[in-house]
Each structure stands twice: as C-alpha cells, then as structure tokens.
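Researcher: Let's try something more involved. This one mixes different molecule types, so please make sure each is placed in the same coordinate frame as the others.
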Amino acid sequence: MTLECRRCGACCIALSISTLDKPAGVRCPHLTEDNLCSLWGRPERPYVCSAFRPEPAFCGSSFEEALELMGELERSLQRETRADRKRRRETHGRG
Ligand code: SF4
Ligand code: SF4
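Model: All components are placed in one shared frame. Result:
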C-alpha cells in the first residue's frame, strides 16, 4: 500500500544516509525550510533518496509517528549490523 507524501520531512531526519555521511536523527543539510529536497532532480541526490517511497509502515500518520517508526527501524538495523560484525569476528577467530 502506498501513501501520498505529506512532506513532513521525517524521513530526511530519522534515517541515516551513508553517501551523505548523515547520521540517523539529524536533519539532512539538503532539506529546505519547507521540507523539500534541494537536490531534487540533480545527479548528486543519493539513489536511496530517489528510490524511497512513502509507506504507512514508515510514515505513520504524523511527523512524530514517522520519526518514531523510522527511529525504531534504524535501531534494529544497527543491532543487526553489530550482530553481523560480532559473527564475522567470531568466525575469523575460529579460522
Ligand atoms: S516521512 Fe513519509 S510522509 Fe513524511 S516526508 Fe518522508 S516520505 Fe513523506
Ligand atoms: S538528499 Fe534530499 S531526499 Fe535525501 S535526505 Fe537529504 S533532503 Fe532528504
């Protein structure tokens, strides 16, 4: 199910964007005051941003809810990354 973007800007704050070195929870420097992307249509715009589509599961029904849902998504991805690193270290340790 898709959702019409309400231009709340939460995704450009809550999510980390590695190509921009943007940590999670920090407002993207390319997000304008009226929550538009100043890189829109330009080649410098990260692919992950162009590919992102509003979804109820991420955007919820308000800016606050979107921050919370995407914050939780980021935290679970970070937990997975840490667990992967630990598994890799353990595997190499045995080899
Ligand atoms: S969080 Fe969702 S509704 Fe808000 S700007 Fe991003 S895509 Fe649009
Ligand atoms: S580059 Fe644009 S779409 Fe991507 S996080 Fe920044 S403001 Fe949002």
